Amino acid sequence: MAHRLADATLEIARATAEMEAVIAGYGDVEGDDPTAVAARAELGALVRTVLASGSDGLLFDHRHHDSPIVVHDGSEGPPADPTTYHPSARPGHRAPHVWLGPGDPLSDHLGLWFTLLDLGADPAAVAAVSEALIVSGVPFSVVQVRDPAVRSIYEQPLVLVRPDRVVAWRGAAAPAEAGQLADVVRGAVRSTRSDAAGVAA
């Protein structure tokens, strides 16, 4: 994350220096003569384009791919773009924002600790993951959502979200080693990409 911030900051500084040079090249744009009016309009359009690029990706696209308390599922996330946020429920990414209704964001339903999102999963799978979390002493709540839009964004029917709103794990069913999943997300054992298959559904 620190490297992404540093790279984006350097890019912003470079772009700012280039914009200052461009503005200086327009000379005096304060007059009312046709040339100044046209120059102001052209410069204004250029500035609006630059401002519209934004920094949403830098602000919201938090990624923790190497976190030892995230279970990787082998999927590829969207390319990192400091100007644009591309929602992704891939483990290690911030849980995407979704409206469940007017003024009712999914984030308001996430618990203080871990949240197991049931987006249409087999009840037996929900029970198996829940049991593993209970046995391991992981505090959690279950949130059931039956909204196709939410399921489409999160891609899997079972999603475990950490207290910091980062996706810790997701799957189509309960993992074969549900106890190992619970141990990873609570930090008892370290997650690695090589052992992810053991706790992937």
Describe the structure.
The protein starts with a helix and ends in a 16-residue tail after the last helix. Helix content is about 40%, strand content about 10%. The chain is α+β, with helices and mostly antiparallel strands and about 200 residues long. The strands form 2 sheets. The chain has a 4-stranded mixed sheet, with helices on one face. A two-stranded antiparallel ribbon has the order 1-2. Helix 4 crosses helix 6. The radius of gyration is 23 Å and the shape is elongated. The protein has 6 helices and 6 strands; from the N terminus they run αααβββαβαββα.
Using only C-alpha atoms, the radius of gyration works out to 23 Å
- Tell me the fraction of residues in β-strands, as a range: 5-15%
Classify the secondary structure makeup into a structural class: alpha+beta
Mean pLDDT: 82
- CATH classification class of the largest domain: Alpha Beta
Give the SSE order as H and E letters: HHHEEEHEHEEH
Q: Based on CA inertia axes, which overall geometry fits?
A: elongated
CATH architecture of the largest domain: 3-Layer(aba) Sandwich
Helix content: 25-40%
Query: If you consult CATH, what is the topology of the largest domain?
Result: Glutaredoxin
Number of domains: 2
Low-confidence stretches: none
Quick take:
This protein is an alpha+beta fold. Helix content is 38%, strand content 12%.
Helices, strands, pairings?
Layout lengths: L1 H24 L8 H20 L2 H5 L38 E3 L2 E2 L8 E5 L4 H13 L4 E5 L3 H7 L3 E4 L5 E5 L6 H8 L16
Parallel strand pairs: 3-4
Antiparallel strand pairs: 1-2, 3-5, 5-6
Helix pairs in contact: 4-6
